[in-house]
Amino acid sequence: MFNLILFGPPGSGKGTQSEKLIAKYELKHLSTGDLLRSEIANQTPLGLEAKSFMDKGQLVPDEVVIGMISSALDGHPEAKGFLFDGFPRTEAQAEALDKLLKLKKTAIHLMLALDVSEEELVKRLLGRGKTSGRSDDTNEEVIRARIVEYHKKTSPVADYYAKFDKVKHIKGEGTIDEIFDALCEQVDMKKK
Ligand code: ADP
């Protein structure tokens, strides 16, 4: 198995690069943002709870997303590996993920962190908001709140994996293909 975390602030290109990475390396894509939006679309109790946090740009409580990831892992026993996108977003989530993977006799092999400047992030998110239909991308205040949450709660997750020497930083500005090539170079080195 090969398990990868694609890490970075909102708007850093995780969704775009995830699609390309899962196709090339035959990984199962687990995006907590996508899973939560699908719960909201289906108007489940979990979706209703999550929406109140997402609309404000806040993180959804750990137990909610950890439960969702746990079922998603159990739901794909045949997977050759997973690409985690938008998860883990807190240290508690990282510790929970390590435990879940250990039960499956596997682990995180690599975290790829996309670095993008804050002004570029806001510009990209507002641009995406015009077409994506995502309400959290149309309001600059909500975007800034998500970036604050990222610095406060999520960026320490990179330090957590750095302790185990699992993190590689990649410049997230440039063309989609340039960034993809830089990501693949790191995956190929790790898989050898
Ligand atoms: P982005 O990376 O652009 O913020 P996502 O689709 O990953 O977009 O997430 C959208 C929202 O969903 C986040 O602002 C947050 O409220 C919620 N969310 C997604 N993943 C998590 C997570 N792992 N923990 C807590 N909240 C999450």
Structural commentary:
The chain has 192 residues and is of the alpha/beta class. The chain has one domain (4-180): 3-Layer(aba) Sandwich (Rossmann fold). Helix content is 58%, strand content 12%. The chain contains 8 helices and 5 strands; from the N terminus they run E-H-E-H-H-H-E-H-E-H-H-E-H. The chain has helices at residues 14-25, 32-41, 45-54, 62-74, 91-103, 118-132, 140-162, 176-191, and strands at residues 4-7, 28-31, 82-85, 110-115, 167-171. A 5-stranded parallel beta sheet has the order 2-3-1-4-5, with helices on both faces. The longest helix is centred in the last third of the chain and has 23 residues, at 140-162. The radius of gyration is 16 Å and the shape is globular. It starts with a strand and ends with a helix. Bound molecules: adenosine-5'-diphosphate (ADP). Adenosine-5'-diphosphate (ADP) binds next to helix 2 and helix 3. Adenosine-5'-diphosphate is lined by residues 10-11, 32-33, 36, 53-54, 57-60, 65, 86-87, 89, 93, 136, 146.
Q: What labels would you give this structure?
A:
single chain, 192 residues, alpha/beta, Rossmann fold, five-stranded parallel sheet, 8 helices, 58% helix, globular, binds adenosine-5'-diphosphate
Offer a concise description of the structure.
By secondary structure, this protein is α/β, with parallel strands linked by helices. It is built from 8 helices and 5 strands; from the N terminus they run βαβαααβαβααβα. The two termini are 13 Å apart.
